């Protein structure tokens, strides 16, 4: 990037440093300083907090996250930094679009992929609209495309909640806590990343489970007492009830829908079940070792 120094940090979440030799082998030819850290406590928030601690130790001003199954454009970091430099935001996100896998897809898988990709594109476009209106607090910023000022860690004491290691949702909660502290956030619409969708995700069962668990986590956190913009349980009951009525009505036409329509139905059903589970105070086990089948 222009007017900046970059280091790359790889945090390995395992009992032993199985990738360190590979990283050391590539250090000499790598265009940026390359660092490795081993975090032995399993769970994504432990890894992210370790990244914060290592970045602090290295004297970094900013920390950027992308997922390990994503690809970014050549101008990705420049675009994030440009947004940071031209705003007062301490936390900035960018769009992540779905990328088709190299594996040939069946017609059913292709339809599910396209429906999901279209839904994500619409969601990213809506976030760009919010940003243009100055309503960035409405844009949930996730660590799959994320730039944070180290002041969030050093001065404001923000951390990823390690109690959510198995449930997921620590990135969402981090964003909620940032907004609750009235800290400015931003959106960089040109800082693109792409996430390859493996074939294991291109089925109705996965689409249902993912929507269910994400909705469960979202509402569990929204109902928590220490968060801003906290809805009431009555609001959740009302939304769940009317969404369920809508699904009952749509189920009559389900046998006649194509797979895009069925994917939409599976996602909406997952969300209704997730809301009902939140009302029942259930907890997600999205990232439990026994559940790692394509998430």
Describe this structure in words.
There is one protein chain. The chain is an alpha/beta fold and 295 residues long. Helix content is 44%, strand content 13%. It contains 9 helices and 9 strands. The protein has helices spanning 20-26, 44-57, 76-85, 107-132, 151-154, 170-180, 204-222, 233-251, 259-279, and strands spanning 8-13, 34-39, 62-66, 70-72, 91-93, 96-99, 145-149, 185-187, 193-196. The protein is globular and about 60 Å long.
How would you sum up this structure in a few lines?
The protein has 295 residues and is an alpha/beta fold. The protein is built from nine helices and nine strands. The chain has helices at 20-26, 44-57, 76-85, 107-132, 151-154, 170-180, 204-222, 233-251, 259-279, and strands spanning 8-13, 34-39, 62-66, 70-72, 91-93, 96-99, 145-149, 185-187, 193-196.
- What is the distance, rounded to the nearest whole angstrom, between the alpha carbons of the first and last residues? 32 Å
Count of strand segments:
9
**Poorly predicted residue ranges:** none
* Major beta sheet, strand line-up: 3-7-5-8
Overall geometry:
globular
């Amino acid at each position: 990037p222009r007017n900046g120094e970059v280091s790359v940090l790889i945090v390995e979440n395992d009992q032993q440093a199985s990738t360190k030799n590979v990283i050391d082998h590539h250090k000499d030819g790598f265009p940026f300083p390359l660092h490795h850290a081993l975090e032995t406590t399993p769970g994504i928030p432990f890894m992210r907090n370790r990244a914060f601690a290592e970045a602090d130790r290295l004297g970094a001003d900013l920390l950027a996250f992308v997922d390990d199954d994503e690809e970014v454009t050549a101008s990705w970091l420049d675009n994030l930094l440009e947004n940071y430099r031209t705003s007062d935001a301490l936390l900035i996100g960018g769009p992540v679009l779905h990328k088709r896998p190299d594996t040939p897809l069946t017609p059913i898988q292709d339809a599910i992929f396209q429906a999901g990709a279209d839904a994500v594109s619409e969601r990213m476009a809506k976030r760009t609209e919010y940003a243009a209106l100055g309503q960035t607090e409405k844009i949930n910023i996730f660590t799959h495309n994320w730039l944070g000022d180290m002041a969030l860690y050093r001065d404001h004491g923000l951390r990823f909640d390690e109690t959510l290691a198995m449930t997921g949702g620590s990135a969402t909660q981090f964003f909620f806590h940032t907004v609750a502290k009235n800290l400015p956030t931003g959106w960089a619409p040109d800082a693109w990343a792409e996430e390859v969708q493996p074939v294991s995700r291109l089925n109705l069962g996965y689409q249902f489970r993912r929507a269910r668990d994400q909705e469960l986590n979202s509402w569990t956190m929204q109902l928590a007492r220490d968060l801003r913009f906290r809805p009431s349980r009555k609001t959740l009951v009302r939304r769940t009830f009317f969404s369920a009525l809508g699904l009952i009505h749509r189920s009559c036409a389900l046998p006649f829908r194509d797979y895009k329509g069925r994917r939409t139905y599976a996602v909406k059903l997952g969300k209704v079940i997730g809301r009902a589970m939140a009302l029942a105070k259930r907890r997600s086990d999205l990232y439990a070792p026994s559940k790692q089948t394509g998430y």
